[in-house]
Amino acid sequence: MITVHPVATAWLARVEQLAVVLPDPERAELLADLSDHLDRALHPNPSTDAVAAVLDRLGDPADIVAAATVGSRERPAPATPPPPATLEPPPGRVDDTLTGWEITVLVGLVVSGLFAPLFVLSVPLWVLSVVLLFTRTRWVGVERLVGLAVPVGFAVILSLGLFATFPSGAMICEGSAEVGEVPVETCYDDAGNVVDPDAASGVEPWGIAAIAVPPIASTAGLAWMVRRLSRRIRRPA
Questions:
Q1: pTM score over 0.85
Q2: Which is more confidently placed, 198 or 86?
């Protein structure tokens, strides 16, 4: 305040004391308005009577604070700002299904194994599946290693299926004659014993197991990958 007078200073101090019921911004604004009014209304070095006259026109500090309090209550509360937008997706809208990348990997691993002898098809498909497995999917750690081994079981079934039909020992067939119109062929094993070629070419027991185990293992690994991935998928709300 430019004009300093003990009476005016005491009057403002009384207003400030009573205005503690107001919020800080409104109390500061009220005191600033009153100080500015006194500066404009009083000349430099005013008399006590002049100060008293101005203060009488302003009114009692208690009435001023009471009026300011009523005005503060009637003033509408500021609108609550909306909460900031979050980067979290709404529940049940993201990661609730397999993506195209995961489906491509699953199909690619199986097909590349089944068609392993067709290198032109199987090798590029296997490479694509592995790249996606390590870069574009939600599988991690050991799950990716299992994915690398999945095609092997489906590929081994082809080669083992061929060898499983071979007889357990070498067989030599020689000579052919005809009795009537029926051809006759004599076959011998390593020991020189005559063997039946039809019986000798049957599927060996170990061959049946060898054919069954690899695809079962690969199927189990594939199912395990799907189950692990399903635990990370957010179910729809």
A1: no
A2: 198
